[in-house]
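User: structure tokens for this one?
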Amino acid sequence: MPITFFRHIHMPDNDLITRISPDEILTDFVEGFYVFKAQDLSGRQLFFNDGYPVVALMQQREGGMRINVNGKTVNIGNAWVCGGMLKNIYCESSGDTAAFFVIRFHPATFFKLFNIRENIFEHNSVFDLMEIAPHDAKLFLNDFYSASSVDKKVTVAADFLSRKISAIAVPALLGELINHIEKNPHLTVKDLSKAYGVRLNYKWLERNFKKYIGISPKEYLLLKRFLNAYRSLDALSSKTLLEIALDNGYCDDNHLIKDFRIFSGQSPKAFFQDNRRA
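Assistant:
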């Protein structure tokens, strides 16, 4: 998703984001349905994912989205999937991008729901919805774009996902860990091991993160740490870069700059100068 989406989802009173809770049958799979009014989406926008895979649909069926991956432009259509570690990927809209409908999935159950490999995002972090639902995505999109209101679109999406549910068993401890990380985004793998003591060993942690989430625990924690640092920088805080780095679990500002270059291809200073100039 455009990184501006994550600027808004943690602001409950923000009028650019509407969150609709999923029905009980979907709560183990879907974190929430969102309508994102992308009024500030213009020019090149950094694409990012916070570890929770999403399916995003543009407002108009005839719309489309282009992404730039290390200088190569790729068309991903009006409905796409996004997840994993997005590095130096930017989006360029075409057509009407006044709003997106976003389905945000719990990471531990997303892959099982669509019966896809957990490493699917390893080499391709953004792709067309048809690639993971080739048999029923076309019918879903027909129904979705025929729906005349947000409530009806939610119903269409819920019906589409409900038909995919089967008996999916995820380790309870993994769910606990994900919730713990959400509440404490500055943790390290060592902190997790210490917090859970004898209940957790590193081999189990590494194996189950890759099995159910598709990335390592270290990579998952990196996404959280970077996103929180990005929010602090974007908020025009009076704090120095070093203070923001330390507040968000980095050992110094050089490590934050290094991560910023990995995810955006630019230093924090250059990135925000370009965005504010735009």
